[in-house]
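Please review this one.

:::
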Amino acid sequence: MKGYACTSCGEHHEDLPFAYSAPAPAFWQDGLPDSVLEPERCVIEGQHFFLRGRLVLPVLDADDDFEWGVWVSVSKDNFFRAEELWDSPERVEEPPYFGWLATELPGYEPGSLNLKTHLHTRPPGERPVIEVESTGHPLAVEQRDGITLVRVQTVAEMLLHP
């Protein structure tokens, strides 16, 4: 799909984005002691551990999927296990890591923060895929059942015109 007519501002936008990403976990604050934010990993106050991943929603009437770039809180053991296997091809054989969604995605009621997830590791160089626990939450329903291009446009408009 090349561009769209925005229902919020009435203008034609050249591209319809199929991905959005959070730069940090929702709990991140600059200046906290024992805290580090890297592109794929985050530690807050030496006690809270986060990994970045892709929460993929199938788009029923398009060739591409829609992706939320999100952060997931994982246990200390799973964080260090993921770090130990970071460059290893064997990491794809890891069982999924349980986690809590640490990104508040716009447009979901109730909110998405702290939804139960499973983080599926991918080959080195690929971000993990995040699976939301299958519940009646709107995000879980969209991941399970898919969304339409109209929904992708609604998200674009919501983020472009907050």
Q: What stands out?
A: Residues 19-146 form one domain. The longest helix spans residues 149-160. Residues 55 and 159 are 17 Å apart (CA to CA).
